[in-house]
């Protein structure tokens, strides 16, 4: 657990801060908060946008009495390009060259316009091959995030994608880790996208991933269009009623096509787990905006005929006033909390 920096998750809708320390093999939260990210932060290239976001971050840290000046920054999956790839065992230079050669398969930008991050997630001593997580982030975005943090008075110690942070939780401290071979599907239900991670146990190894363009914002748009609601009211309805049976609004009817698309993508991963890894998916785990869509877990379980639950973090956290206050929203902070795990 890092003692010199804290985690900042600059998301499309919310900016989340988390400071934590290790205590008796658990995570002790010493600070946790979220505020709205500046509107259009990721699309507006003006200095004013960066200055406004810097002010938000600076005020949040001041209010939380965080005195650290270094940060670990989390980048939304929706702005990264990622792939799990298999290569023969190579040195760093050879591996980078091999990745650059195949990059156009999943990176829609010139390779010189992105920052590449390579992580060995599994070494197979029998086949002499390594499974590599490759993440590419546009250099323009990396520069923007670094400048924003510098304006706020902080030094970025690291920048990484949500998927790197979330999957590290499963490999390092997850209560789901077990000795028997099994697979879990983790759904990072984000604002504009949903990331699907296939996690293999033991070890919490990322085996497959996919990012689909179905996120929380599309559910907001469906309510706005069908019920003529403003954003805040639509979000309130999603959180208080959502997919609750016999609710005031029948969200399942409005959002039917969205659910079918998402369920279709999830089923592809269920098939891959059985066909490629010869293991059934034991459980589907939700995080991020899942707690802002009431009964989302129950609806998915009904459609997929699989156990579905929101990410359980209680057993990995020290019980204190902070963990208690955010208990119903804790899965939203998985990125910023995991940024502290080093």
UniProtKB/TrEMBL annotation:
Matching Pfam families: PilM_2
Protein name (Swiss-Prot/TrEMBL): SHS2 domain-containing protein
